[in-house]
Amino acid sequence: MQAAVESALLTETERAVMSVIHAQGETTRPEIGRALDLTKPTVSTAVAQLERHGLVAAVSARQGTLGRAAAVYGIAQSAGWLLGIDIGSTRVKLLARGLDGAPLASATRELDEPHQVQRPNLLPAVQAEVAQVMKKLSASYGPLRAVGIALPRIIPEYLAQSSSGNSGRGHQLPEMLDALSLPTGIPVLLENNVNCAALAELDRGVAAGHEDFVFLQVGVGIGSGIVADRKVLRGARGGAGEVSSLPTSWPARPRDDEFALEHYLGSRQLLARCTASWDKASGEAPDTVPTLFAYAQQGVPAAVSALAQHAQDIGQLALALTAVVDPALIVLGGGVGQNPLLTEGIREAVQRSKPYVEVSVSALGDEATVEGAVALTLDHALWSLLGSHHPRRLDGRTTVLTTGQPLND
């Protein structure tokens, strides 16, 4: 694989120089020398080698007060690119970024049957979108360095099921990888979708300045991503944050309802409760969740009351999480959770008991999960190239597979 060969060829000095260029975005050789305490000839030699590898390039010139203009270096377009794939409950989203983080391509494919990972149109949708992005980028942007896939699954559980040939409620992993039609030797990183969203908020969202926070997603289903000391908390079996299976109404909770809380807080159940108790004086009952929110925006009393109660219910879940992990911030995401009609009610429910816990809506919205998938790949690609000169964000629990190798390898 080209990326592995380039990494093996780089000297420690070249890795250090490239790390400075990547961190600064754009910089000159004198600035690199000062940052690393290296001589001018040493920096010049390292930069020249990185240019030969197609990893950095002169992007502009900067005129100083005296003498010649200094060449400004950045990550080269030919350095490679990264692909994130969000396989959600209602759509597939793709996002490609260059090694410098620049956006290169994006795509969204709506799915006709929501919340069914085994739906027959899923794999063709993924395959078609990936093929288009590969065709568009591979010729101009160097090697594809890594692919990140966000799935609505507990990843270790999904791996175990796929290895045994029993994928439970979804496609087996080999089918998923085959559908991508990727070149051999590409690293593929798998991560839970809500954990990806949490990583994205940490990188470029409202949680950028926080060490400890919770991303709470409320939509068709519910879930949370817990970040402690700027790292995602995964738990012993990868199931940390799976609030959908929190027990409710004990000891009266039905034994066969493992996801009782999700069945109460999910958007379908919200709509069903609302229509069942709808006040006919308020007009025709809503038949979709967006219609319910539109009614509330218009001030229809039954809709306003339903969403006020839903905000309190979500707030109670957020409050329960604060008691366990003590975050400084709760980030609200998901198709329902990030709606501004709920924000104040959720914030009030949390801050009534924990006034020091901030409550904010996702800055990235529907893009959070796919942005997190790309963030995983960028971290992996930089670590592969730069080694110890890149402060790695991933831990040993992130699943990294390689295309063309058996699943159990």
Structure description:
This protein has 409 residues and is α/β, with parallel strands linked by helices. It has three domains: 77 residues, Arc Repressor Mutant, subunit A (Orthogonal Bundle), CATH 1.10.10.10; 154 residues, 2-Layer Sandwich (Nucleotidyltransferase, domain 5); 157 residues, Nucleotidyltransferase, domain 5, CATH 3.30.420. It is 41% helix and 20% strand. A six-stranded mixed sheet has the order 6-5-4-7-8-14, sandwiched between helices. A five-stranded mixed sheet has the order 11-10-9-12-13, with helices on both faces. Strand 12, helix 13 and strand 13 form a beta-alpha-beta unit. It is globular.
Keywords:
Arc Repressor Mutant, subunit A, disordered N terminus, 3 domains, alpha/beta, 409 residues, 14 helices, globular, Nucleotidyltransferase, domain 5, 14 strands
The H/E string reads HHEHHEEEEEHEHHEHEEEHHHHEHEHE
Helix % is 40-55%
* Oligomer class: single chain
Mean pLDDT: 88
Rg (C-alpha, Å)? 24 Å
> Would you report the number of β strands?
14
**Highest CATH level, the class of the largest domain:** Alpha Beta
In DSSP terms (H or I, runs of 4 or more residues), the helix count works out at: 14
User: Looking at this structure, what is the CATH superfamily of the largest domain?
Assistant: ATPase, nucleotide binding domain
Question: Spans with pLDDT under 50 lasting ≥5 residues?
Answer: 1-5
Q: Class by helix and strand content?
A: alpha/beta
Largest sheet: 6 strands, mixed
Q: How many distinct folded domains? A: 3
CATH third-tier fold name of the largest domain: Nucleotidyltransferase, domain 5
Query: Into which percentage range does the β-strand content fall?
Result: 15-25%
Taking the alpha carbons of the first and last residues, their distance comes to 17 Å
In what order do the strands lie side by side in the largest sheet?
A: 6-5-4-7-8-14
